[in-house]
Amino acid sequence: MLKVLGHPIRLKIVAGLCAQECNVKHIWECLALPQATVSQHLALLKNKGIIEGTRDGVEVHYAVVSPFVRRLIEILHAEP
């Protein structure tokens, strides 16, 4: 999991999804990246069991489901 989270884009995606679940369009707009790039990163995170997508009509909302990753992001955001 740490290797997957070692990529700065994936780390940003996961940190954002820990704060709020969102759809792929919202993610790529926030990161100012092409939709295809974000989708590739989401697919890798999903395959590693870090996030899950829930279908709502035509949209898929992503959220972090790994307790380990949630705790890791919490620690990274903690003040010393």
From TrEMBL:
Keyword match Iron: no
Residue ranges occupied by any HTH arsR-type domain in the UniProt entry: 1-80
GO molecular function: DNA binding; DNA-binding transcription factor activity
Keywords annotated in UniProt: DNA-binding, Transcription, Transcription regulation
Domain of life: Bacteria
Protein name: ArsR family transcriptional regulator
Origin species: Geomonas terrae
